[in-house]
Amino acid sequence: MEKLIIDERTGWEYELQGDYYYPTGRVMRDGVLTPETVDNDPEEEQFIGVWGQRHLRFIRLHRISLYLDLYMSGKLNAYLADINAQAEDFFFRTVNIIAAQEGLTEALKAEDQIAWIQRKNNICNRATEIVNRELIFT
User: Whole-prediction pTM value?
Assistant: First the structure.
């Protein structure tokens, strides 16, 4: 089977991944392959941080229909930027809540910096797991 094919009826290019062909997002026009979006208006690029990249990896592997729908409609970047912003906000709020509940204060930081760093890293790791479970991998 060929790795790349072009549908002559629509002009869309498809790439073989495993047993299935997936659209690459490029279309043949006048003998030249060009990126294509539904509204032909290029999406404004927004910053995608670590949370958005994790979610992108997840939906590409486990939510293929959602990924293809967002990709083909040209809304993938905006969707990932929104997820990234929500996750960052949720992460920092969770860290602050847990730190307040466990009494992690600046006084401890002044007294014993190593103990403060250990506790802070523990809180950050737990908050990361919470964000991953609640937002990223759903």
Answer: 0.67
**Do 62 and 121 lie in a common domain?**
yes
Q: Do 111 and 62 lie in a common domain?
A: yes
For residues 24 and 15, the answer to whether their CB atoms sit within 8 Å is yes
The tokens for 114 are 């190593």
Total tally of structural domains belonging to the chain: 2
Closest CA to 96 of 118, 135, 126: 126
The closest of 93, 95, 88 to 51, measured between CA atoms, is: 88
Torsion of CA 51, 56, 62, 66, to 10 degrees: 120
Q: Which domain holds residue 76?
A: 37-136
Q: Buried b / exposed e across 49-62, counting CB within 10 Å, b at 16+?
A: eebbebbbebbeee
- Which tens digits make up the pLDDT trace of 34-84? 666 544 445 567 889 999 999 999 999 999 999 999 998 889 999 999 999
Tell whether 29 and 42 lie within a shared domain.
no
**Which stretches does DSSP call E strand in the chain?**
4-6, 12-17, 20-29, 32-35
